[in-house]
Amino acid sequence: MRIITLECPDCGTVVAANELEDNRIMKCPGTGCESVLRFDDLSEDDRSFYLDNKEQYRL
Ligand SMILES: [Zn+2]
User: Fold this and answer.
1) Which of 17, 40, 54, 59 could crosslink 4 through cysteines, CB 3.0-4.6 Å?
2) Backbone phi and psi for residue 38, each to the nearest 5 degrees, phi listed first
């Protein structure tokens, strides 16, 4: 399975695509980091792959 993650541009915390997709917009979970991460920040390729293979990420 392909791992799809987004790395916070400010602190480098890695967030999994399924967390982003649940929330669409979420505050970075990094300690003390106020960045906002969006599902839309993933590359188009990653987003479409994720949406096409969503079931795999729900296990
Ligand atoms: Zn961060």
Assistant:
1) 17
2) -125, 145
Ligand 1 ion: residues within 5 Å (CB): 8, 10-11, 13, 28, 30, 33, 35
Residues with pLDDT less than 70, the chain? 59
Q: From CA 17, how far away is CA 30, in angstroms rounded?
A: 16
Q: Is the pTM of this model over 0.90?
A: no
Coil, strand or helix at 1: coil
What are the boundaries of each domain within the chain? Answer: 5-58
